[in-house]
DNA sequence: AGCATGATACTTGTATACAAGTTATTGCCT
DNA sequence: AGGCAATAACTTGTATACAAGTATCATGCT
């Protein structure tokens, strides 16, 4: 399990959440493995209270399973949950891009284009670490442009499940394709071409689809059933 | 603030959540009012720990706002949040009813029809208290029928905000209309009439829309801004 | 009077002690 | 050896003590 320093001003609970989330997503904490409040609190140099509160929060996102008086475990990967998260995202992103086509504001379009420029810059520098947050920001900007920022937060809270199999899947889709998708979507919005925008968005979201069978075959213990 | 007995087997945290949720939704705890962990723990006859954990959970649903070292407050009603919740629900329910039209299973249709029968029975008995859970169950069954139960859970977690203004608004839509809607939706699904199903669902979801200006005028302190 | 200042009484955040339940182990009995 | 029972070593749940920050109010100074 990898450890970080506590950021200044960060309270113990959020620190615990940050460290645990990182280690769960990057599979440093294996799906199915046991974690205990005592063990974690000594590892993180905290008392049980903030660690416990962190575990409770992660259990609400179904990343941790707490069995009362028995133990806590890193949840195994639930493929159905991931597919459902993708369904939710697909449906909501399409609804949002449709709204965006109805009344595209120049201010919002500028922000989106600026973001794409940054994405391209990262591509040239091959700075993939900086690329992912920008990808995320692009979609956030899209939701913000139609006043649906909170909806995006809901989606994002579901995306953690997706992050875990992205870690597992070595060959994730090329950032080049992703940036192209983004550019085309903005193009469609500017033209107010709802139909095209939805087709492009659907293809974009479905790009992330991973091959279940391969992953389950390679890491059977990480998955439910 | 109304109090209940602790159910057998219910732990202190869930009990605190249940009582607080009830009192927030029914406006026994006024939006904007201060609540403190100490005060609540003595009211509920619990220690601070489970009460604190309950407040943290409610703060995740934006029903409570925790200001570190300053105090905790019942969140004021955010109309934009409610509208956005309705947007999410509208979009997802339509997507689900569309899926249901593609391959309506007899088993699922039977469950839905049985549910409607129960709704009608409640209507005859004028048992509104039993009606609301059935309304909820109807939509849950619909989501389950297309394997999207978790999506429904996400929607439902957003619905608490809606419940609060339903309490405020004395004249909520007549159950009679709601049952009619449900019947018509099932009819459309059986006929695999996607277009009709979506129209009916849209009207059904939008029925709950409340008049913002009236409510804000009557209870200005309960709302943000 | 008005303002600064310090004590006090709050608040939530964190640490720790104890309670209650589960699991594994150990040792005895058959 | 096998099985059963007591026990010890865990687990999370809850209660409480202490830490640290904030707001209020009183007091004294200008």
UniProtKB/TrEMBL annotation, chains A, B:
Transmembrane segments: none annotated. Keywords: DNA-binding, Transcription, Transcription regulation. Residues 10-77 form the HTH gntR-type domain. The keyword Transcription regulation applies. GO terms for molecular function: DNA binding; DNA-binding transcription factor activity. The keyword DNA-binding applies. It comes from the Bacteria. This is DNA-binding GntR family transcriptional regulator. It comes from Lacrimispora xylanisolvens.
């Amino acid at each position: 399990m990898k450890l970080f320093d506590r950021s200044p001003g960060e309270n113990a609970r959020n620190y615990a959440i940050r460290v645990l989330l990182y280690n769960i997503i990057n599979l440093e904490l294996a799906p199915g493995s046991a974690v205990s409040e005592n063990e974690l609190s000594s590892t993180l140099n905290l008392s049980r209270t903030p660690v416990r509160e962190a575990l409770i929060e992660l259990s609400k996102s179904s990343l941790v399973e707490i069995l009362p008086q028995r133990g806590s475990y890193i949840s195994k990967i639930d493929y159905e949950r991931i597919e459902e998260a993708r369904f939710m995202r697909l449906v909501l992103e399409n609804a949002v891009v449709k709204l965006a086509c109805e009344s595209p504001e120049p201010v919002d379009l500028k922000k989106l284009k600026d973001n794409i420029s940054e994405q391209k810059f990262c591509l040239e520098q091959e700075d993939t670490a900086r690329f992912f947050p920008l990808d995320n920001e692009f979609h956030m900007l899209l939701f913000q442009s139609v006043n649906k920022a909170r909806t995006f937060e809901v989606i994002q809270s579901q995306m953690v499940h997706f992050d875990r199999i992205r870690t597992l899947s070595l060959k994730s889709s090329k950032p080049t394709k992703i940036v192209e998708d983004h550019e085309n979507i903005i193009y469609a919005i500017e033209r107010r071409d709802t139909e095209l925008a939805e087709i492009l968005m659907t293809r974009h979201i479905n790009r992330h689809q991973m091959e279940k069978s391969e992953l389950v075959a390679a890491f059977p213990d990480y998955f439910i059933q």
